[in-house]
Amino acid sequence: MNVVPTESPATNPDTAGTTGEDLDHQRAAIAALGHELRALVDATVRTAAPTEVLHQMTDEVRRITGQLTGRRRTRAEIPAVDEFPGGVRMYSPVTGTGSPLAPPMQVTADSGGVVGRCTLGIAHEGPPGYGHGGMSAMLLDELMGWACAAAGLPGMTVSLQVRYRRPVPLEAPLRVYARVTGTEGREIFVDGSISTEEDPSAVAVTADGVFVSPDPGRTRALFPHVR
Ligand SMILES: CCCCCCCC(=O)SCCNC(=O)CCNC(=O)[C@H](O)C(C)(C)COP(=O)(O)OP(=O)(O)OC[C@H]1O[C@@H](n2cnc3c(N)ncnc32)[C@H](O)[C@@H]1OP(=O)(O)O
After folding, report:
1. What is the pLDDT of residue 14?
2. Which residues contact 113 (CB under 8 A, 6 or more apart)?
3. ipTM summary value
4. Engineered SS bond to 22: which of 18, 120, 179, 209, CB 3.0-4.6 Å?
5. Nearest CA owner, ligand 1 atom 43
6. How many Å lie between the centroid of ligand 1 and the Cα of residue 227?
7. Predicted TM-score of the model (pTM)
8. Any idea which architecture 106-222 has in CATH?
9. Alpha-carbon 190 to chain mean position
10. Cα separation of 131 and 200, whole Å?
């Protein structure tokens, strides 16, 4: 995740010859599928359906999964619909509108840092009615990474210290905040927090992180598909 040019759609074999409009349509279709899959995940973790219905659903879902045929991307491949580094990531488990796992969090620039907005559902539950601590750490890790990128210092997490001050409610709009507080050599120091939109002053989780920009050789080795 170093400062290297994004692999543009024009240089990706899957998008060669496609227009910006085609890409928009494809992303919209991916987001629509992601939306329905998240609804399925939510219905699945809430259902009290009888065993017989669960067996029927299992067969139905297996049948639908079998219809997603065609070429599958390999492990390190960057999806043709993505802009990496520093742009859209359709299948990110945090921000990806195409991901069944993501809340998904929307990120905007804000007073010296970045703000993430999302709502956790029952699929993200830890203690009954509240968010899983790992989900809070994931939201913060991601947004703190965005704060680095927004400051022109893209990096990877090498350390993340999280303090859980009060439980994070489910089904309540959340406000995640992150900002770069300083640098030392290749280390980037970042603060983050989670509160509800309703009461931003009541901070539920805080985090201190250290991020590091890999050197160019390490970046090439880690991300062989980034030019
Ligand atoms: C845009 C949105 C993106 C969202 C992404 C969210 C962020 C993520 O989840 S990233 C995924 C999780 N993180 C990882 O997998 C990283 C794993 N770590 C690594 O691969 C390597 O440590 C890597 C590539 C980051 C750095 O390796 P390398 O370039 O060899 O650096 P290295 O020489 O070890 O250390 C560089 C500096 O960082 C410091 N450092 C290393 N580890 C730590 C640490 N744990 N704590 C503090 N400082 C550290 C070193 O002291 C060194 O400092 P200096 O240059 O001043 O001597």
Report:
1. 63
2. 147, 150, 177, 178, 179, 180
3. 0.91
4. 18
5. 158
6. 21
7. 0.91
8. Roll (3.10)
9. 18
10. 17
For residue 170, report the distance from its CA to the centre of ligand 1, in Å.
32
Confidence (pLDDT) at 12:
57
**Closest Cα to atom 39 of ligand 1:** 187
| 170 CB neighbour count, 10 Å cutoff | 21
d(CA 206, CA 163) in angstroms, rounded, equals 5
In Å, how far from its chain's centre is CA 42? Answer: 18
Among 18, 161, 173, which Cα is nearest to 81's? 18
Task: Report pLDDT for 4.
Answer: 28
Pick from 10-24, 28-42, 68-82: least confident? 10-24
Paired strand residues for 109: 114
Cis peptide, bond prior to residue 9, ω within 30 of zero: no
Could you tell me the distance, in angstroms and rounded to a whole number, from the CA of residue 188 to the centre of ligand 1? 9
Residue 104: asked if its preceding bond is cis (omega within 30°), the reply is yes
Q: Lowest mean pLDDT: which of 2-6, 38-42, 103-107, 132-136?
A: 2-6
Q: What are the boundaries of each domain within the chain? A: 106-222
Nearest CA to ligand 1 atom 3: 145
Letter for the amino acid at 13? P
The tens digit of pLDDT for each residue in 114-140 reads 999 999 999 999 999 999 999 999 999
Answer for the pair 78, 85: CB distance below 8 angstroms, yes or no.
no
Task: Give the C-alpha separation, 143 to 186, whole Å.
Answer: 19
Q: What is the mean pLDDT of residues 197-217?
A: 95
- Kind and range of the H or E run holding 94: none
